[in-house]
Amino acid sequence: MTTFAPEDLVLVSPRYLAGSGTRIADALGPLIHLFDWSYDHDPASGHIRLDSPCGSAFLDFEPTRFDGSWWTIRHHDPSWTARFSRQTPIEAIAAVAQTLPQLLGDARHADRIPLTTSTLNQTAALNGWTTTRTETTTVYASPDGHCVLTYEPGGELPWRFRHSLYDGFDTEWTATLSRDAPKELARQFFVHLADPAPVERLFKDLPYLVQHGSGALITPLAAAAVSPHVHHAAAQAARASAGRPQKR
After folding, report:
1. Cβ contact 172:164 at 8 Å
2. In angstroms, rounded to a whole number, what is the distance separating the alpha carbons of residues 24 and 17?
3. Which of 4, 73, 76, 124 is disulfide-compatible with 203, CB 3.0–4.6 A?
């Protein structure tokens, strides 16, 4: 077992255990700099609002919301909303935010920010998620059972993601997309959430139960004898072979 200092950069998998991270610019920057979305920033509250050039969509980052839904994407005509709570991994949020312009007809950078072609079923099968179906609902569960996507086509919130590690308050997060939201956004979020490739975090930014538990694989970003990502992949393979969780 490796002991990490709070400021150590680490690689973490699975992604849904990594917490939100702090790189909100990954979600907001492309919209501002590549697609000319206007923005307002309130330094006192941290609230940031982005508006699309056509005025049909906006994105709110509001870290003081009492209900914990820090991220809101809303579209008018048709009316739909996507919400992401505080600990939702930023990589999956960014994947959704960066593809909004394409869905609004702005394809200038489609080659750099591709939309996935994978269905929910394909993404689940590729990444070892289980699938349970009823007449009205399909439930996809991560290999460890802690992250669940409930797809209910007839519901007010057809796509509902929920994660919790042993009911730990700092590991809980939710993501929802309302009726009429483009199915491409749900697919985009899911494919970037279920991706086995690790994400980068400061060790101190990981949820407490992730830092001190055995659910996540955490490896150093620096001081590895080989490429940090190769080292992490080797650790993933060893962990899968052993058939039990461990921290390396």
Report:
1. yes
2. 18
3. 4
Name residue, tokens 């461990």. 246
Sheet holding 9-13, edge to edge: 199-202, 9-13, 217-220
Distance CA 83, CA 88 (A): 10
d(CA 55, CA 233): 43
Stated pTM of the model: 0.89
DSSP state at residue 203: G
* Residue 236 predicted with pLDDT over 80: no
pLDDT at 226 over 70: no
Q: Which residues of 175-192 are buried (b: 16+ CB within 10 A; e: fewer)?
A: bbbbeebbeebbbbbbbb
Q: How far apart are CA 21 and CA 24, in angstroms?
A: 8
Using alpha carbons, select from 184, 198, 177, 53 the residue that is nearest to residue 110.
184
Beta bridge partners of 192: none
